[in-house]
Amino acid sequence: MSFFNGIQENKIEKGKKNVNYITTQKIRAFSVIAGTIGILLLSGCQSETSAGQNRQFRQFTKQLFCQELSSNTISLHYTLKNPKEYDIRENEVTFGTFPTDNKNLLAAVENLEEVLKTFDYNKLSVKNSLTYDVLKCYLNMTERDAEYILYDEPMGLVSGVQTQLPVILSEYPFYEQSDVDTYLQLMKTTPEYFASLLKFEQKKSKAGLFMSDKMAEQVIEQCKAFRDMGENNYLYSTFAERVWTVTSLSDKQKSDYIQKNARMMKAYVLPAYDNLICTIEKLKGSGKNEQGLCYLPKGKDYYEQVVEASTGSTRSVEEIRDMTRRQMMEDLEAMERVIQNSEREVNAAIPQNPVSILQDLQTKILTSFPELPDTTYEVKYVPKAMQEHLSPAFYMIPAIDAYNENVIYVNEAQIGNTMALFTTLAHEGYPGHLYQTVYFANTNPDPIRTILNFGGYVEGWATYAEMCSYYLAPLTKDQATLLQKNSSIVLGLYTLADIGIHYDGWSREDAISFYKKYGIGDEDNINQIYDLILGSPGNYLKYYVGYVEFLELKKDWVKAYGSQASQKEFHKAVLDVGPAPFKVVEKYIGRKLDK
């Protein structure tokens, strides 16, 4: 979900409390250049041969990929290390904008749908038909979402622009001097980018769709936390660290750049945050709803769309609720069996260091997961000043032409114990986000698929990986089962609460009553959960529903292959398909995908 009109959303993969990535709009694909692509291809002659159809289809997707990336500086720089190899020339330096009208979006989607119809689906190779199906699903989802363009909240509490923009800037790679210059130009455009964001929020306000007062206060607090870092702001230190790695620069040039970065921070970035704070304070009070989405006009319909887009599942909200309850019951029954049969204490001799844990996981997953090509990674730590506002951990997706350069951030203040660190690093690293990203990149996918985000698959896989990791830790099988089922049930409770709040209209009292039924009575914690769910509808569903969809696929795999079912082959089959709606994954799982 990028998507294409602003900071690309699929650049930051995050841990349990978060949404993936930075976004300007939830689903705003292809709105800039789709019309041009459509006119260009529809005016030409389509080859009737199978080889010709496949060649022209790949030309189409490559052109779409290149033009989309060239329209957005962040998307381009984070997706490709060497854009010139794709014949991409960077245009205007920009973060993008926040569109408030869906007419251009709908016209663009219609154009692309017409282009897809010009290809003979039956003549496409398996790999190209997979890309075709993914694009078609994506466009259908975008078209449905366009009706609710002002319902989206780019300043969400879990992964809003206000908290993730600094992270994106702090990790912006400097390969050569021109990258440093582009970065500084980007900083200069921050006020313009935030002005577009505020125009979007003002239009939401006029439509009666602005955020609640409590959420506005939390957004303001997050902005102030970044603004008030002073000279300790990590955008000073991370810039200096990166610029000193650019070997083509002299020491004097590096020093001059460091001073210029400080000036740009003070002249553009920090004032942009001041303006953001001021405007949100003025708009506070204009929100009409302090509860779930269902209290908004068409709010229930919008939530259904959020759930489908978030999870990649075509199940209805009611079906998801039922599936969640069934899975929770299975987990509870498994826990009861273990409790009856085991009285041993947990003795988890887990490595204390994140790098050691990742190395341990790399080795242990080889028995059940396909081998991964050699890759590198770096573990970094969230700056103390931002620990309260960022996730327990998150993964920075690398450029597709440099996918062996990976970074995982750990938030020491948000991870309570070594077991939590172990499973979180499994989620972010092996066999989670890092593993899945590098594996898919190594299959040489159509580049267009790397800029489409399917949160249910991506976060569902990482959650599935996290659950698998309990059985890779130095625990007995019974201990691992207890901890894993408990973690699964907790996510199931979040999912049911998300549905209850946004679909059924739960009040805070309803949420407290629900959690007390499961022995959770801390009302302060429940209120925090309520606020997080209010600020990010459907967020927890992508983790849990995605995870359970993988479990359902595995059950079908075992039914199909019986005693010959191999866990490693199952993992390879779903990883080979790559991020997609689950109905597409189900269609292509186990099929030979031509190179």
Detail the topology: elements first, then pairings.
Elements: E1 12-14, H1 34-42, H2 50-70, H3 73-79, H4 103-117, H5 126-145, H6 161-170, H7 177-188, H8 190-206, H9 213-227, H10 234-243, H11 251-283, H12 299-311, H13 317-341, H14 354-364, E2 376-381, E3 393-396, E4 405-410, H15 418-428, H16 433-441, H17 455-469, H18 477-502, H19 508-516, H20 523-535, H21 539-561, H22 567-577, H23 582-588
Parallel strand pairs: 2-4
Antiparallel strand pairs: 1-3, 3-4
Helix pairs in contact: 1-4, 4-5, 7-11, 8-11, 9-11, 10-11, 13-18, 14-15, 15-17, 17-21, 18-20, 18-21, 19-20
How many individual domains?
3
Helix content: 55-70%
Pattern of helices and strands: EHHHHHHHHHHHHHHEEEHHHHHHHHH
Number of helices in the DSSP assignment: 23
Outline: globular
* SS strand fraction: under 5%
Pfam family, one: DUF885
Protein name: DUF885 domain-containing protein
Organism: Ruminococcus hominis
Description of the molecule:
This protein has 595 residues and is mainly alpha-helical. It has helices at residues 34-42, 50-70, 73-79, 103-117, 126-145, 161-170, 177-188, 190-206, 213-227, 234-243, 251-283, 299-311, 317-341, 354-364, 418-428, 433-441, 455-469, 477-502, 508-516, 523-535, 539-561, 567-577, 582-588, and strands at residues 12-14, 376-381, 393-396, 405-410. It is built from 23 helices and 4 strands. It has a 4-stranded mixed sheet with strand order 1-3-4-2, covered by helices on one side. β3 and β4 (405-410) form a beta hairpin.
